[in-house]
Design a protein that fits this description.
This protein is of the alpha/beta class. It folds into two domains: 132 residues, Murein tetrapeptidase LD-carboxypeptidase, N-terminal domain (Rossmann fold, 3-Layer(aba) Sandwich), CATH 3.40.50.10740; 140 residues, Glucose Oxidase, domain 1, CATH 3.50.30. Helices cover 30% and strands 21% of the residues. It is built from nine helices and 13 strands. It has a seven-stranded mixed sheet. Strand 12 and strand 13 form a beta hairpin. The chain is globular.
């Protein structure tokens, strides 16, 4: 079966008392205070937590060696008591374990995989290979700094609710294109997504709504990655393009505004002549605003009203 023809599958929702498994597919936890606070926030949602500290077999930038990180993910996925899996943090390492991923296990046991940043690899790769929808949302260490609206959307989506985006603060309709467009949501971290080009794990982006964000990247590097997307034809046949926060790696608001305006300008240059809508300032990214988005689910963009709705169409 061609990947573009795979049926889309929505994981079961979570209920109070369900167990959430914590996985370390990339880097080690460095901020243990944020990690512990994030775990408590999950418990406050009524969830049980299954977590085991990595054994330290990784390098400075890996939570454990590849086989141990892969084994941890597979063990949680195979355990029927685990109803969803959430990354402890991002960093780097997901691309290293993709070749060993047990896709048949994942197909047979649909459950939410939750995370962002380096988890862009797993979320998009699993959707491309299995049709399973994943949740581009917080990691455990980012939960304590996440803004209230993003947290409420996170709670709602885990419970099987997908509230529309309306009256989005800071949203800029950079190009309305065809004002009403529908497509499957794909994307995430720009740097990580660019690393999927040429691999089997990049979803078919034709007719999709692509969303992008990034952190701590110089303007010329963002320009280079966006230009590469165009050179590969990735921006040609989209249904829509959504730009989240591109932050300089710290909280300087003025510098962040300037960086986003540079990204917006370059995207408009690269997409000149396209007919799809382009939005900027959407609440996703590495700062406080990080609203969850279900990768693989169909969404409907309305540039006239600046709203986006979710449609589950298997």
């Amino acid at each position: 079966m061609k990947r573009s023809c795979l049926p889309t599958r929505l994981p079961p929702c979570l209920r109070p008392g369900d167990t959430l498994g914590i996985v370390h597919p990339a880097g080690p936890v460095q901020d243990y205070k944020s990690f512990e606070n994030g775990l408590q926030m999950l418990r406050d949602l009524g969830l049980r937590i299954r977590w085991q500290a990595p054994d330290g077999s990784g390098s400075d930038y890996l939570a454990a060696d590849d086989q141990r990180r892969l084994h941890e993910l597979h063990s949680l996925w195979a355990d029927d008591a685990i109803k969803a899996i959430m990354a402890a943090r991002g960093g780097y390492g997901c691309l290293r374990i993709m070749p060993g991923l047990d896709l048949e296990l994942i197909r047979k046991n649909p459950k939410w995989l939750i995370g962002f940043s380096d988890l862009t690899v797993l979320l998009n790769g699993i959707f491309a290979e299995t049709g399973l929808i994943g949740l581009h949302g917080p990691v455990v260490t980012s939960l304590p700094r996440t803004d209230p609206d993003s947290l409420e959307r996170f709670r709602a989506m885990l419970a099987g609710e997908f509230p529309p985006f309306e009256d989005i603060s800071g949203l800029e309709i950079l190009s309305p294109g065809r004002q009403q467009q529908a497509g499957r949501l794909v994307g995430g971290n720009l740097t990580t997504l660019t690393h999927l080009i040429g691999t089997p794990w990049l979803p078919d982006l034709s007719g999709s709504i692509l969303f992008l964000e990034d952190t701590a990247e110089q303007p010329y590097k963002l320009d280079r990655m966006l230009t590469q997307l165009v050179a590969c034809g990735i921006l040609e046949n989209l249904a829509g393009l959504i730009l989240g926060d591109f932050d300089p790696g710290h909280g300087d608001r003025l510098e962040m505004i300037r960086l986003n305006e540079q990204v917006w300008k370059r995207v408009l240059e690269l997409s000149r002549g396209s007919s799809y809508p382009i939005w900027g300032g959407f609440p996703i990214g590495h700062q406080q605003r990080n609203s969850p988005l279900p990768i693989g689910m169909e969404a409907f963009m309305d540039s006239g009203s600046g709203t986006m709705e979710f449609i589950f169409a298997p």
